Amino acid sequence: MELEAEPEIPGHGWQVGLGDEVGLFVRPDHDDLAEFLGGQAGVRSVVQLDREVFAVDAPRLCADGLRAAVMQAVAAANVRAHDPSVAERPEVPAGGAVTLDVSATVFHPEQPVEPEEDDDLCRLVCGDAASGGRRVQVWVNMNGILILPAGTIPHGPLDQGENPRFQRATVTPARAVRLAKQHEGRWIPYASLTNLRLRRPRLVRRRWSATVVERDGFSVPFSWRGTRPHALLLWGYVVARRGLGAADGLP
Questions:
Q1: Rounded Cα gap, residues 2 and 236, in angstroms
Q2: How far apart are CA 69 and CA 209, in angstroms?
Q3: d(C-alpha 247, C-alpha 251), whole Å
Q4: Three-class SS of residue 17?
Q5: pLDDT tens for each residue of 201-232
Q6: How would DSSP label each residue in 187-243?
Q7: What is the secondary structure of 96-113 as a DSSP string?
Q8: 28 Cβ contact list (under 8 Å, min separation 6)
Q9: Residues paired with residue 211 on neighbouring β-strands, in sequence order
Q10: Quick check: 126 and 138 in contact, CB under 8 A?
Q11: 3-state SS, residue 127
Q12: For residue 94, what are the CA distances in angstroms to 12, 68, 116, 224?
């Protein structure tokens, strides 16, 4: 978690990013963390930028205090998501404590769990990045990184306030290769990736920059003006497939 000098959401100076291990505690068909976090003592408001990133207004909390509030919220969401004996959805009192009635014998059927994400499902990191003097769009999925001229794959506006979910497109490796050839783009499978260097933006320009380096020494630099969640998206996919040694500069 970081205290942003120029927060994306006015008044919400704290940005909280959840690690992958949190997914082990909260079911993917439950999005309760923002609700529980907003009910913790000292937290005024929470805006969920995506499933793992939250903008938080908590002026009276230090980093350790906010971290404790997040842990309580995760624990409460975990209980609600996994305990079938809870007769009704627990409320979060103003003081932050969670009261559960575990004596009930009524069992509710579980909500259907979303299937695991298809490896071919691409998510858009940026639709208007700069790379080598031209405008490009950058997509990532569990197979690799696809860099195409801007506008190649249509998408909606990247407005996290209006659309908290990332733009998506189904792109198989074979289709990625064809698109890269047809449009003079670049398809970089994670197996051929040596390193990803990611730099946070300066306060004035507010542009992220990244350089993808392949095993043959070829590198693709690009920069974009965007939000922290999109930088985390790029970094997260690389780390998930190539390990921590493949990414420098955790955003």
A1: 18
A2: 32
A3: 10
A4: strand
A5: 765 557 788 899 888 888 999 888 767 778 88
A6: EEEGGGEEEEEEEPPPTTT--EEEEEEETTS-EEEEEE---HHHHHHHHHHHHHHH-
A7: S-----------PPPPPP
A8: 113, 114
A9: 197, 221
A10: yes
A11: strand
A12: 19, 15, 35, 40
Q: How many Cα atoms occupy the beta-carbon half-sphere of 82 within 13 Å?
A: 12
Q: How far apart are CA 213 and CA 221, in angstroms?
A: 9
Strand 193-199 versus strand 134-140 pairing type? unpaired
Cross-strand pairs, 195:
213
Mean pLDDT in residue range 101-123:
53
Query: Model-level pTM?
Result: 0.53
Residue type, 148: L
Q: How many residues does the chain have?
A: 251
Q: Please report the pLDDT score of residue 182 as a whole number.
A: 92
Rounded to 5, what percent of the chain is helix, strand, coil? 25, 25, 50
The pLDDT tens digits of the residues spanning 127-149 come to 888 998 899 999 999 899 999 99
Q: Which amino acid is at 104?
A: A
